[in-house]
Amino acid sequence: xxxxxxxxxxxxxxxxxxxxxxxxxxxxxxxxxxxxxxxxxxxxxxxxxxxxxxxxxxxxxxxxxxxxxxxxxxxxxxxxxxxxxxxxxxxxxxxxxxxxxxxxxxxxxxxxxxxxxxxxxxxxxxxxxxxxxxxxxxxxxxxxxxxxxxxxxxxxxxxxxxxxxxxxxxxxxxxxxxxxxxxxxxxxxxxxxxxxxxxxxxxxxxxxxxxxxxxxxxxxxxxxxxxxxxxxxxxxxxxxxxxxxxxxxxxxxxxxxxxxxxxxxxxxxxxxxxxxxxxxxxxxxxxxxxxxxxxxxxxxxxxxx
Length: 305
Known about the structure:
Structural class: alpha+beta
Mean pLDDT: 77
Strand order of the largest sheet: 3-6-7-8
Distance between the termini: 114 Å
Radius of gyration: 43 Å
Shape: extended
Oligomer: single chain
Largest sheet: 4 strands, antiparallel
Number of helices: 11
């Protein structure tokens, strides 16, 4: 372990801006002025260095039985062991998701758990109020918090499981609220009452903001203008759940409807076809303007044999 920390110090830490070294003789002239990274940023840099550099750097302690003279990197050794033993891919469950959330430690007081001026409380905390955690540092309890939805936290109780503890105003805020939104509200809304009333006012402001930023459903299109009693009008009124209006029948309308019926159209079609066609002496049907071209009649042709 000491060797690992020494490698991190010489291969990574000393190249980071603001490095102070192990004693004052290794410190630069203006190291304090050069420090520009937060703890979260340093953690991200360290993770990137481990992934891109450390995992691909050969280590003398990593040897393969078939290649005893070759030093392997952690990535190469992992690949060799993976090929020998294999692995079983397992999808993450909801419990795994909560286990991977950021962890912090807080006491359980008589009012519940206070995090950034928010109060979380539930009946499962009753037997643990004011008591130290048997496993947490300093007697504090292990809390998992989703920074993208702070309306609930997950507390690890002595049974080893994570239990959901809701925010006391969760039912009032109807959309996920991030930690960034909450901090903005706290910085914007001035505290003018005691803590409980101020927390309720922050919850009200959060709900109003989230409601305004929520996308609204498009309004349904207006029905087309149509006169009741017509086909279009009846279709519109039936789609709206109403009864179609009875059409106004007149003598002229009845005559027009009779002329537009299928029977009338079929009769007119047959009459027009009879007028355009004629029969020659042999009985063949001759088309008008067709000259010598005639329609072949199989029955009439059979009588000629």
